[in-house]
Amino acid sequence: MTVGQSPGYGEAVRYVSGIAVEMGDPNPLAPDATHSEIADHYAQRVTAASGERPVYDLGALYAYDRDAGIWRAQELDQLAAAVGSSYTGQKLCRKHSDYRQIAQLIATTTGTDDFFSTAPAGIAADGKFYQVAEDGEICADQLVADHRQRTMIPVAPEFEVRAPLFELLLDNAFGHGDGGDAQRELLQMGMGAALCGFLWRLRTVLMLFGPTSTGKSTLLEILKSFFPRDRVGSVNPQSWGNEYHAAALAGLSLNLVGELDPTTPIPGGIFKSVTGCDPVGARHPTHRPFSFVCMAAHIFNCNRLPPTRDKSAAYFRRWRILEFTNSIAPGKEIIGLAERIVQQEQAAVLGWLLEGAARLARDGHLPETANHRRLTEYWREANNSALQFVLDREYVEPASATHSVPAQEVYNAYKRWGTAAGIKVMGRNAFYDALLDAGRHGVAISEDFSGLKVVSGLSLQKST
């Protein structure tokens, strides 16, 4: 059995359709029942089998498995197949198109927009629900349907138990001292929130940044072990603007990308929508469009900071960057380290992550480490040629806030700078917008008393 997978998880489809058939018909159908009557009858059969009415959310139909205590998903194609096998003798249920239309009706009549998004924070583990309260308390309760859990972790968390292999991994990744401790805390809180299902509510994405062989992928493998395979995806944010790729995010609990493309820009608009708790439009191939709020925790690896055309503060505050600096020398790696930690220390790691989630619930926000602030500053400058120009002392010198230069002169100097540096320059209005990001360097753009745009806080060198 895969770690993090409850017994029989792979039988979810047979559970939803099969048990409903075995339970018999709550109300027998007439042979010429309409599609609407068949759809309602199917929902009644699943309700009779599970004790809870099924719910369509996140692009799938969910039925409660009262033996396991969790909700299991049926994709629309699977639902159509179940309808066909259950009602193939009906006069109006004989073709594949009939099965699909009935499946769509079931989705419509059982649909909701917030069934899982309003679930309490916590995990289902070893038959109990460990809830993380807003005050930072962790309470273990009997698992019930109202907890709205979709994953069962097979081991109970162990608190205040050492995990030597896992600690060795963190020591190598972050080193010691205040900086390393701060990064450990950020990792613990961020991954703990991902595990407990509320990192998405904070509108925050984790980036594991650093060279190869520093432990980034090992950490992702350990976190992935707590989730069923079909609840973990790898949808690159550079593709989120495509409705099919967006649809792949629906229903995921964890979205892990092993390496961000270092050459393709991340589109800021859709990135902020997906990570900002906004409804996102999506569509599975051959199916109707739908919208959903993405509840997946996003954690990305990269060796180089990815490009972006979005220079807004709203974009950059979505991120928390964890810096991995210590590469393991060739031949010194521990082969199969992630598997060994899962086999020997999973319960202790689970307790450590729950404690991080509890601390985050109490504090209400993820901290910014010194490493994060330094790398974010570098990233913003690298993606903003206007800011790079302002900080180039061969062309621009700081000046008092009362000293101003006509904005057109500054833009003309920027164009000459870009041509000399071989950098593609922005249009004038885009340049003016990008200068807003230079405010923390004492540069501001405004209009003077005559309505002329001026830039204050800098002076142009004669060489420009």
Structural class call reads: alpha/beta
Rg value: 27 Å
The pLDDT mean sits at 88
Question: Roughly how many Å apart are the termini?
Answer: 67 Å
| Shape, per Cα inertia axes | globular
**Given this structure, which CATH class of the largest domain is correct?**
Alpha Beta
Biggest sheet, spatial arrangement of strands: 9-10-13-8-14
**Might you state the CATH topology name of the largest domain?**
Rossmann fold
Number of strands: 19
Give the total of domains: 3
The percent range for helix content is: 25-40%
Strand content: 15-25%
| CATH architecture annotation name of the largest domain | 3-Layer(aba) Sandwich
Largest sheet: 5 strands, parallel
- Please report the number of helical segments: 15
- Unreliable stretches, pLDDT < 50, 5 or more residues? 1-23
How would you describe this protein?
With 464 residues, this protein is of the alpha/beta class. It has three domains: 102 residues, no CATH class; 220 residues, Rossmann fold; 77 residues, Winged helix-like DNA-binding domain superfamily/Winged helix DNA-binding domain (Arc Repressor Mutant, subunit A, Orthogonal Bundle), CATH 1.10.10.10. The protein is 38% helix and 17% strand. It has 15 helices and 19 strands. β4 and β5 form a beta hairpin. α1 packs across α2. The longest helix has 27 residues. The chain is globular and about 90 Å long.
